[in-house]
Amino acid sequence: MKLKIISSSPQETQTIGKLFVQDIVQKTSSSKTAVVVSLEGDLGSGKTEFLKGVAKGLGIKERITSPTFVIMRQFPLSGKKFRFLWHIDCYRVSASDLSNLFWEEICHNPHNLVFIEWGNKVHNLLPSSYWKVKLKVLGEKERLLTIEI
Ligand SMILES: Nc1ncnc2c1ncn2[C@@H]1O[C@H](COP(=O)(O)OP(=O)(O)O)[C@@H](O)[C@H]1O
Ligand SMILES: [Mg+2]
């Protein structure tokens, strides 16, 4: 399934992220592994903006920043299904770096909800089933978001 949405502002991209994650939380029943979302698109396409909306949708108060210098951040969640949101940025990370960062453990824990910027760089390490959110710059404020599983 492929869903295409045009966003006309950073706020709209955040709203799409918020609705997306709330839908995932609602729909996920007992999964055996972590739920993984790969965010794919050029620098400045809005991956981190999308994550800001995701954090809002999960009630996270901390500020979401571009984790270019911090490779991964973990946010505790109050919900029952998911206990942690992970925000990972693979811009400067290779697949072998990631596999050294407890990636296997993170992926195997069904209480983890994992969003990974530049997931396409490490697609070999992603689970067999994952969400893909592609962002494409169409104009100064226009972005095409394609969501698929
Ligand atoms: N529709 C839009 N959606 C997301 N970001 C947008 C949009 N229009 C303009 N922007 C701007 O584009 C930039 C996106 O940055 P960021 O989310 O950090 O991108 P990435 O994480 O993909 O490198 C921000 O400066 C944001 O204000
Ligand atoms: Mg980013």
Structure write-up:
- With 149 residues, this protein is of the alpha/beta class.
- The chain has a single domain (2-148), classed as P-loop containing nucleotide triphosphate hydrolases (Rossmann fold, 3-Layer(aba) Sandwich), CATH 3.40.50.300.
- It is 27% helix and 28% strand.
- It has helices at 10-27, 47-57, 95-99, 103-108, and strands at residues 2-7, 35-40, 72-76, 84-89, 112-117, 131-137, 143-148.
- A hairpin with a 5-residue loop joins strand 6 (131-137) and strand 7 (143-148).
- It starts with a strand and ends with a strand.
- The chain binds adenosine-5'-diphosphate (ADP) and magnesium ion (MG).
- Adenosine-5'-diphosphate (ADP) binds next to helix 1 and helix 2.
